Q: What sequence folds into this?
């Protein structure tokens, strides 16, 4: 048996035929990679065949039986194949062959050949297919005999740390890993992104036809009369987001949720009285180092976004010492002072001692006892579910979030914009601490960069200059930049300006952003003045404070601005701090729903203008006709 890479969630099913939810009859896997020979080998491996297929120039589907179910493999040309540059054509082929969509993207990557260019191309394919693609992706590294390059490490992070080393991996284990990806996504398909369907189709239709009626637009966006624009259309948030914490004691309970224990966090899903449950089992945190505990809790929070609302603390009274109690106290402190309000002690054995009593007191006497002889799933323990339900109600539906210094798991989603030549790519390189980034000016499409900055994961989308583009392109790229920040939305828009008088291009770009994103974008905007010298130079502050146009712009953006030396990283912490303070003050983000609402307002306003123009034209014609008759 191979050892799965340490960040992979080990699988739980006992056979390949049980790995899918009961209602699923077929597993659809799209295989992408940078070496065709290895893609072919992995495809044969999954299908249980041994056939040689010539490198295809388009997507190729193979379907085989898997017990009483089926597995469908979609082979794709490798990333070096020229046709893979045509993302639209590839996506259309892939969507047609997997309709209504694949369950898993299996990324078969050889470390030696995997370059930054491969990463960008692969990300472009996944991001254009769906904003949920990375949630359905698993990286399969084809050799373990070399160090993984930065580009591959970044790809693994994007795929939520799901990765395996293929060599010496048996077929059943790989099938189980694919099955777990399916379970984590509740059996859902990856459906073609809304930015090629709705409401993007609404946007494009509006641009192409200026006479589009407002009610037709609403229908195209998936709205009905009298219906509010819904919140995120991503995977629904579970009513119960439960984290199991403790030593080996919780394995007695968790082994009935998972078929094997693991030192890493696992996640499963369930339902109780029509309400969804997400259950995350941590590793043995009691025996881990402080840094290991911090890392583990960050992983757990990713699985139960926006945060857990139930912490079950598993205790065996016979060996629960004061030292273990203090360790539990430290773990809970990562969530702040209110963590005990969301906690319940669960006994796995008989008995009680003073240390246990103290823990129960901290948890406001919330406790539950389970038998380690009784095989029970969490949602079938009615008494436990009732207790957790009461705790969730008492906390008014709130949830726990990691303290700021520990919360590197939540990405800071930024959109950088400005006129062409303003220095957006240089600013992006300075912020994420990377050089040689793909410049947005070379593609006229949004480019997404990611990296860890000051202990915080930052996702930065660079928006191309739009003022000179056709309105259809403006709408497409604007919607795409917001979609790339799903599901949380854009935390901040960053307007990049050199320390110089505003140009006509600057003003045109600002006007385009205002018209497209609506006036609310100002509430989310910070101005980033870029220099290549000391940002504290008095001349810089004097220019900014005395230039009337720039002062008017700063006032429009709530006086939020930072001066950044793009050649010196020392000012980056100041920028991140300013952004976090801005986000804390507002406690919301700019989502696709806000963008759609801005679009609807724009269409409404334009419709009113057209109606007023029509009435004015009619009156003018009437007056003209009356004048003619009088003569």
A:
């Amino acid at each position: 048996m191979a050892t799965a890479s340490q960040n992979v969630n080990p699988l739980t099913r006992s056979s390949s035929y049980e790995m899918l939810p009961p209602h699923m009859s077929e597993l659809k896997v799209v295989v992408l990679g940078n070496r065709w020979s290895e893609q072919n080998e992995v495809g044969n491996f999954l299908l249980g065949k041994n056939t040689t297929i010539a490198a295809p120039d388009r997507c190729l589907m193979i379907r085989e039986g898997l017990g009483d179910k089926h597995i469908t493999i979609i082979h794709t040309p490798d990333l070096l194949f020229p046709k893979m540059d045509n993302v639209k054509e590839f996506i259309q082929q892939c969507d047609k062959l997997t309709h209504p969509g694949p369950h898993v993207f299996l990324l078969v990557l050889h470390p030696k050949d995997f370059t930054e260019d491969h990463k960008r191309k692969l990300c472009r394919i996944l991001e254009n297919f769906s904003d949920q693609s990375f949630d359905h992706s698993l990286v399969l590294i084809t050799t373990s005999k070399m160090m993984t390059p930065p580009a591959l490490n970044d790809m693994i992070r994007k795929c939520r740390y799901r990765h395996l080393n293929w060599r010496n991996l048996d077929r059943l284990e790989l099938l189980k890993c694919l099955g777990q990806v399916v379970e984590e996504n509740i059996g859902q398909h990856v459906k073609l992104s809304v930015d090629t369907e709705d409401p993007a189709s609404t946007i494009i239709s509006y641009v192409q036809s200026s006479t589009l009626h407002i009610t037709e637009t609403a229908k195209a966006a998936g709205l009905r009369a009298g219906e509010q624009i819904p919140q995120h259309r991503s995977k629904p948030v579970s009513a119960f987001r439960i984290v199991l914490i403790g030593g080996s004691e919780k394995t007695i309970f968790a082994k009935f949720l998972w078929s094997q224990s693991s030192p890493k966090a696992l996640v499963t899903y369930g339902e109780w009285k029509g309400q969804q449950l997400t259950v995350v089992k941590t590793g043995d945190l009691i025996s881990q180092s402080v840094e290991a505990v911090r890392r583990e809790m960050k992983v757990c929070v990713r699985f139960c976004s926006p945060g857990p609302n139930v912490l079950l603390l598993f205790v065996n009274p016979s060996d629960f010492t004061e030292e273990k109690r203090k360790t539990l106290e430290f773990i809970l402190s990562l969530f702040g002072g209110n963590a005990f309000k969301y906690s319940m002690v669960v006994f796995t054995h008989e008995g009680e001692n003073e240390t246990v009593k103290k823990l129960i007191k901290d948890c406001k006497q919330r406790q539950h006892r389970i038998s380690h002889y009784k095989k029970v799933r969490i949602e079938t323990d009615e008494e436990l579910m009732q207790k957790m339900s009461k705790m969730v109600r008492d906390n008014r539906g709130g949830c726990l979030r990691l303290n700021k210094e520990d919360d590197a798991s939540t990405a800071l989603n930024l959109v950088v914009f400005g006129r062409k030549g303003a220095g957006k790519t240089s600013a992006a390189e300075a912020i994420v601490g990377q050089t040689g980034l793909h410049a947005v000016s070379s593609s006229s499409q949004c480019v997404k960069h990611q990296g860890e900055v000051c202990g915080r994961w930052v996702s930065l989308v660079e928006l191309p200059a739009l003022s000179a583009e056709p309105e259809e392109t403006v709408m497409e790229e604007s919607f795409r930049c917001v979609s790339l920040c799903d599901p949380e939305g854009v935390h901040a828009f960053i307007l990049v300006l050199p320390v110089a008088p505003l140009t006509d291009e600057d003003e045109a770009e600002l006007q385009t952003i205002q018209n497209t994103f609506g006036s609310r974008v100002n509430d989310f905007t910070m101005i980033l003045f870029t220099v290549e010298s000391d940002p504290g130079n008095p001349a810089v502050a004097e220019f900014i404070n005395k230039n009337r146009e720039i002062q008017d712009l700063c006032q429009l953006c709530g006086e939020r601005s930072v001066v950044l030396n793009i050649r010196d990283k020392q000012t980056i912490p100041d920028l991140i701090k300013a952004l976090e303070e801005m986000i804390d003050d507002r406690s919301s983000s700019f989502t696709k729903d806000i963008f759609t609402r801005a679009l609807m307002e724009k269409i409404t306003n334009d419709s009113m203008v057209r109606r007023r123009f029509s009435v004015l034209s009619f009156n003018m014609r009437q007056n003209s006709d009356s004048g003619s008759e009088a003569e």
